[in-house]
Amino acid sequence: MTIDEAPSETVDIDPVPPAKGRAHRSAALRWLLTDRIALLIVLLVVLLVWFHFLSVGDYLLAPFSANYLAGYLAYFVPIFMLAVGEAFVIIGGRGGIDLSVGGTVSLVSIVFGYEYAFWHWPLWLAILAAMAGGAVLGAVNGLLIGVLRIPALIATLATSYAYSALALTIHHSAPIATTEIQDLTSLTRSVSLPLIGGLVPDIPLQVLTFFLPTAVVAWFVLHRSTYGRRLYALGTNETAARFAAISVGRVRFTAYVLSGTIAGLVAVVTVAQFASATTDAGTSGAGMTLPAITVAVLGGVAISGGVGRVGGVALGALLVTWLNAGILLLFNNEQSSKLQLFALGALLLLAALLNVFISRFARWIRS
């Protein structure tokens, strides 16, 4: 047999994935890392699927159903609102933070209880007074930080102690739970959504009356107003903002006023939700301050300032809320409360590490 007649052997070579496919995967990874909203949506889907399979396998104490998740949105509203307030002060840069929101909620809750239950103010007037009271408390922070230039950590920690002490002193550490206050639970009842009420579960009323207006106003102020552009500019580069004739003190002062106003509104939500105006409404247990900061950072608000979106904060609040809802069904009450705190700390650490990774490798991620 000649060489020409030798049988040819076919060697199967594994095809190399085309460069185009690798480029698509790399682009998808960069998209997830740089777009916090996309990442949070993926995490939400993973969370829901995971707990769904746990529920189907009877590993949970009760079904992880759509009705259960919809009802748990009652806890989503206040944490989102406070996180938006934190977003305003953090985006402004220079270590902006508001540790006093828990104390503000406690103090305004008691004052609101007096106005509505003891002084018999109309509900609309008591709500406006709660927002005004929160604005005044926020203005104290704004004066200390924006005008006197005291570090935000020190200033708001001091006012947190002061506001909490005042809340305990005014009503001698006793809650206000009169019939008028208890009737406010009607503000948090479950309602059907218009047009699609039969397709989705009923949701707490505060989602429509408090969450949506706060989200819309915050989105407009941050992303569509002149003030929002100045706040982002200040958080990105304070020196450049000064050269651009931006009043640094005024912008920061306003951010803390907005944070306080939102905290005052949260006080109304809390009183209605628990049918009682308590002296530690914002500070009991783990408090409201640290969860709000966690949600803001998890939602993509850079602790260094200049970065953050309302949509990311909303998704971060939803992720934390439904994670807590799942943990509550996975363990008994004593264990679940401890694990909720652990999960909150883990999420905060994860968000901080992700922010550091993105800032250090920003050039590679965006290339």
Straight-line distance between termini: 58 Å
Uncertain runs: 1-13
Radius of gyration: 25 Å
Helix-strand sequence: HHHHHHHHEEHHHHHHHH
**Portion in beta strands:** under 5%
Largest sheet at a glance? 2 strands, antiparallel
Structural class call reads mainly alpha
Could you say which overall geometry the principal axes of the C-alpha atoms support?
globular
For the secondary structure, the number of strands is 2
- SS summary, helix count: 16
Question: Quick check: average pLDDT?
Answer: 86
Query: Helix proportion of residues, in percent?
Result: 55-70%
Strand order of the largest sheet: 1-2
Layout: helices, strands, pairs:
Blueprint (H helix, E strand, L loop, with lengths): L18 H16 L1 H21 L9 H6 L1 H19 L9 H18 L4 H25 L4 H19 L8 H4 L7 E2 L11 E2 L1 H18 L2 H11 L1 H6 L4 H27 L14 H10 L11 H21 L2 H28 L1 H5 L1
Helix pairs in contact: 1-2, 2-14, 4-9, 4-12, 4-13, 4-14, 5-6, 5-7, 5-12, 6-7, 6-12, 9-10, 10-12, 13-14, 13-15, 14-15
How would you characterize the overall build of this protein?
The protein is mainly α. Helix content is 69%, strand content 1%. It is built from 16 helices and 2 strands. It has helices at residues 19-34, 36-56, 66-71, 73-91, 101-118, 123-147, 152-170, 179-182, 206-223, 226-236, 238-243, 248-274, 289-298, 310-330, 333-360, 362-366; strands spanning 190-191, 203-204. Strands 1-2 form a two-stranded antiparallel sheet. Helix 5 packs antiparallel against helix 6 (123-147) and helix 5 crosses helix 12. The longest helix has 28 residues, at 333-360. It is globular and about 65 Å long. Mean pLDDT is 86; it is low at 1-13.
